[in-house]
Amino acid sequence: xKPARVSSxxxxxxxxxxxxxxxxxxxxxxxxxxxxxxxxxxxxxLDADSEGLLILTDDxxxxxxxxxxxxxxxxxxxxxxxxxxxxxALDKLRAGIALSDFTAKPAKVRLIAEPPGLWLRDPPIxxxxxxxxxxxxIRIAEGKNRQVRRMTAAIGYPTLRLIRAAIxxxxxxxxxxxxxxxxxxxxxxxxxxxx
Length: 195
Description:
- The protein is α+β, with helices and mostly antiparallel strands.
- It has two domains: 86 residues, Alpha-Beta Plaits, CATH 3.30.70; 94 residues, Alpha-L RNA-binding motif (Alpha-Beta Plaits, 2-Layer Sandwich).
- Strands 1, 2, 3, 4, 5, 6, 7, 8 and 9 form a nine-stranded mixed beta sheet that branches.
- A hairpin with an 8-residue loop joins strand 2 and strand 3.
- The chain is globular.
């Protein structure tokens, strides 16, 4: 009998300025600078100017389950926006908002305090004394290119900083920017969380 294949899962807190790939491009750094694990691939990308949770795996089925919107796996984002949106503005996101090339499905969104224990971004966001900022928690099951940024801009509150805090029930926990944790084996608890 052939032994069962052992899968690997890597949780990574992607810093600002790092691509969701192993080779650098232009001014952007790459995952190879941080993660020495071979044979794992990103399951759901983040833009170079976004931060937070990336999951990498060598399990193609799990990668598809995490990345493909047809599985409706919810992703949680923290967005620092320019200004303080009122409930009427947030209701537009909750209802689903038309963007130039598609209509975003209804999002779960709420105003939150700055997340506790949040690290400083390098470089910091632009500071404008006359314009306050606020934090939103946004949960979506899609993940189109720059979707959260486009959604907040469409209601008049541009995103200044974007952090993916969780994928399904798997969060950043205690990972600092640039830190990763590898889990080998069947990780039934994580697969269960991805149902």
